[in-house]
Automatic annotation (TrEMBL):
It comes from Capsicum baccatum (Peruvian pepper). Its EC number is 5.1.3.-. This is UDP-glucose 4-epimerase. One of its GO terms (biological process) is galactose metabolic process. Residues 26-340 form the NAD(P)-binding domain. It comes from the Eukaryota. Keywords: Carbohydrate metabolism, Isomerase, Membrane, NAD, Transmembrane, Transmembrane helix.
Amino acid sequence: MLGLGRTRTQTRSSRSMSLGGVIHVLVTGGAGYIGSHAALRLLKENYRVTIVDNLSRGNIGAVKILQELFPEPGRLQFIYADLGDAKVVHQLFSQNAFDAVMHFAAVAYVGESTLNPLKYYHNITSNTLTVLEAMSAYGVPTLIYSSTCATYGEPEKMPITEETPQLPINPYGKAKKMAEDIILDFHKNSNMAVMILRYFNVIGSDPEGRLGEAPRPELREHGRISGACYDAARGIIPGLKVRGTDYKTTDGTCIRDYIDVSDLVDAHVKALEKSRPGKVGIYNVGTGRGRSVKEFVEACKAATGVPIKVDFLPRRPGDYAEVYSDPTKIKLELNWTAKHTDLQESLQVAWRWQKSHLNGYDSSLVSSS
Ligand SMILES: NC(=O)c1ccc[n+]([C@@H]2O[C@H](COP(=O)([O-])OP(=O)(O)OC[C@H]3O[C@@H](n4cnc5c(N)ncnc54)[C@H](O)[C@@H]3O)[C@@H](O)[C@H]2O)c1
Ligand SMILES: *[C@@H]1O[C@H](CO)[C@@H](O)[C@H](O)[C@H]1NC(C)=O
Ligand SMILES: *[C@@H]1O[C@H](CO)[C@@H](O)[C@H](O)[C@H]1NC(C)=O
Ligand SMILES: *[C@@H]1O[C@H](CO)[C@@H](O)[C@H](O)[C@H]1NC(C)=O
């Protein structure tokens, strides 16, 4: 790709970016759940997007939908590559003048991380180092990094602010914390604009039904609660298992903070717009409101209209009772607040997509080709 000149990228500050020219964003992991939603939003806002993904977990179907929506030459480029391959990553950066990187690509299941920690340190920590080295070598000025509330571990005091000590308790959280540390240390001697976003539990999907969450079937066992809701409603699994009813919470089940993916990608766009050379911003991205697993299950039943069977089981080791964010900082500094805070509505939007895509993106490909 020969679009933008190298020198222009190196001298452009993020402030001047917004004044003229098309901003070219590299979205790593853009075939995945959150990355594809972010790419859609960026394209809608007239950014130029390059997705890099090796499809180990993402869906080419999501990329195809984006390509159909934005067919104009130069708007969206998809590159099939593995971020673990430093040579290929350097080549990618040498052939494209990116203005910013949104780095979503990762493996992201807590349970799997305890079973296969090296996979996590490799695909999170080591690959982030590779991306950062390439950004540094080619003068890419802005990084927006996908981090997680798992970097906080199990703090005593709720809500979690950005000042809450980070004491992760599983390899997933540790690998993300290490990646944050690498980024922050690098940043001390660089003029890069850095935004680190620590997401809470992400749910929902595109309200217009173009994209959804479609993890590989084999990941179901490690899955997230939202996926379990749809799978139970579809009868793929026999029901929902609520693990632990004797926590010190209002109804005895765990408390989590569920953030809608539309709000989450909005936070990324605001972070990109407000990023400044030499500055770093670290933000929690959550609603600030905790919901119990029981509340979630009720919302799931109402959203899907299916009388899902619910089993109440003993606690699962490693689960913490209560996690929710204090989103004050991101509101003050980025003027961002969560707008889609009705759990049932978020699940309903996602359920609509799930119901019409029983084979994930495959079914939509069959019907459209
Ligand atoms: N989903 C959540 O609730 C949540 C919460 C906190 C943080 N996050 C973070 O958000 C980011 C995106 O998560 P997601 O839920 O969209 O996951 P996902 O698995 O749907 O997407 C990740 C994408 O990265 C790609 N990828 C992985 N390794 C790669 C490699 N080596 N080279 C190229 N591509 C590679 C996968 O193919 C996939 O498309 C991750 O960094 C994750 O840690 C997610
Ligand atoms: C994706 O990348 C990983 C390294 O992160 C690699 O081990 C794996 O084989 C790749 N998968 C595909 C389908 O290319
Ligand atoms: C992650 O890294 C391991 C090597 O530790 C590799 O085998 C695997 O395929 C990589 N990618 C994914 C998505 O698991
Ligand atoms: C903050 O965002 C709201 C919309 O959510 C907008 O109306 C308002 O003008 C913004 N304030 C600033 C200072 O940008």
